[in-house]
Write a structure and sequence with these properties.
The protein is mainly beta. The chain has helices at 2-23, 39-45, 180-185, 193-199, and strands spanning 26-38, 47-50, 58-64, 67-72, 76-81, 89-96, 102-105, 108-113, 116-121, 129-134, 155-156, 166-179, 211-212, 218-221, 224-228, 232-237, 245-246, 250-251, 256-262, 265-270, 273-278, 286-292, 300-303, 306-311, 323-328, 336-342, 349-352, 355-359, 365-369, 377-382, 387-392, 396-401, 404-411, 414-422. Pfam families: LVIVD (PF08309).
Length: 423
């Protein structure tokens, strides 16, 4: 009897071993599955107006009348009362998840949130109200745009996701036995399965329109709002401020980052180049030309016959050496590089008359005389600060750094620090 039992156990073990051998060796792996919530209820919870709160990650800067709006990357934006530039005051935080940029006209604030266009009424700055939200107006909502961090895991299971309706609000990670071959097969490709999954988600008269910095993706020109996503110019007719019309978008390239205009000419900054469009017909931007350069982060500002483009290399920005490109655009159909000035790690830039301001990252804020463009001359450097982007105003300069707002006043041909405000 014992021999029979032993024989039976031997056969069973042999069967399992042979199955294991057929599929190759096995191991214990971490498997992550997303915890989902429907997008409609998630977005309803993603908007709130609360008391001032410390900033987490400084993003874009925007000014309107006596107020400054500073993006907290992917979380919303802070509202700063700047009636006294020597002593600005934080007055509110507008929680708007999935937000990176804003633009304002006639006390209506337009913002992005997970690819939607969200509109607020800010006529009473102490009682900001949500007017409407246009779903997928900028780009199709993608489940992977939430701020939830990915857990460490060996496998990511996405089979239960409805890409049209679901948002990831968390992850569940379990240990499961999988074949080693299955695990290794994820890396036997040019673009692995995890990357593929990510790609599939993806007192005096006040001005009526606000002003953003050179890193802006939003731009209001007359009755139209232009928003660049990663490949297109999205166009909105905002002649009715509360009910904008979504017009046909225009595909530019797969790498665009910023938008700037000089009159009815748009200059689109991208990681591969600068793209120039005519908006004489504001609903249908028409391609004029492009200026190509190596891969780098690329904001652009324009003054007269010259475009000034900062290229930031390294990291995710690309391998191009950092520098300032001065480009002759007197012939819009044939932009011509005139000179390159080396930089440490430039971000945004701005122009006030004959003065060029460049945020050179950890090298600080650099001030140049450009009266002899394309030749420029360094006249001042503000060191020991991290400079991100600037907005040159009529009587002062705003600059956003790492969790700090700096304001400078113009003095003769130079500038002087007016205030430093910790966000």
């Amino acid at each position: 009897m014992r021999k029979n039992v032993f024989l039976l156990l031997t056969i069973i073990v042999s069967i399992f071993i042979s199955c294991d051998d057929d599929d190759g060796p096995y191991g214990d792996y971490l498997v992550a599955r997303p915890i989902l919530q429907d997008a409609i209820s998630f977005k309803a919870e993603a908007i709130d107006i609360v008391d001032p709160t410390p900033i987490v990650s400084s993003g874009k800067i925007y000014t309107y009348q006596n107020y400054i709006f500073i993006n907290d990357v992917n979380l919303g934006f802070h509202v700063i009362n700047n009636q006294n530039p020597s002593s600005p005051e934080s007055i509110a935080f507008i929680k708007l998840e999935g937000n990176y940029d804003i633009s304002i006209k006639d006390k209506k604030l337009y913002a992005d949130s997970y690819g939607d266009l969200v509109i607020f009424d800010i006529s009473d700055i102490t009682n900001i109200k949500l007017i409407s939200r246009i779903e997928n107006a900028i780009y199709n909502n993608e489940v992977w745009t939430t701020s939830i961090e990915y857990p460490q895991a060996d496998f990511y299971e996405y089979d239960d996701i409805d890409f049209d309706t679901d948002i990831v609000i968390g992850w569940e990670v379990t240990t499961e036995r999988r074949s080693v071959a299955e695990y290794e097969s994820q890396f036997n490709c040019d673009i692995c399965s995890f990357d593929n999954a990510l790609e599939n988600f993806g007192g005096s008269p006040q001005p009526s329109t606000g002003q953003g910095g050179s890193l802006a993706r939003f731009k209001i020109i007359d009755d139209y709002l232009y928003v660049v996503d990663y490949s297109d110019i999205n166009i909105f007719d905002i002649s009715n401020l509360e009910e904008p019309k979504v017009l046909d978008d225009v595909q530019v390239a797969w790498d665009i980052e910023t938008i700037y205009n000089q009159g009815d000419i748009l200059f689109i900054g991208g990681s591969q180049g600068m793209y120039i469009y005519d908006i004489k017909n504001p609903e249908k931007p028409e391609f004029i030309s492009e200026f190509r350069h190596g891969t780098a982060c690329d904001p652009v500002v324009v003054d007269g016959n010259y475009a000034y483009v900062t290229l930031k290399g390294g990291g995710f920005c690309g391998n191009t050496e950092s520098g300032l490109y001065v480009i002759d655009i007197s012939n819009l159909k044939n932009p011509e590089l005139k000179v390159i000035y080396p930089m440490d790690g430039p971000n945004g830039l701005g122009i006030k008359d004959d003065t060029l301001f460049i945020c050179d990252g950890q090298a600080g804020l650099k001030v140049y005389d450009k009266s002899d463009a394309p030749n420029i001359t360094l006249i001042n450097t503000f060191e020991n600060i991290i400079a991100y982007d600037v907005i040159p105003l009529a009587s002062s300069l705003l600059m956003i750094g790492d969790r700090f707002l700096y304001q400078y006043e113009y003095v003769d041909n130079d500038i002087r620090l007016l205030s430093t405000f910790e966000l």
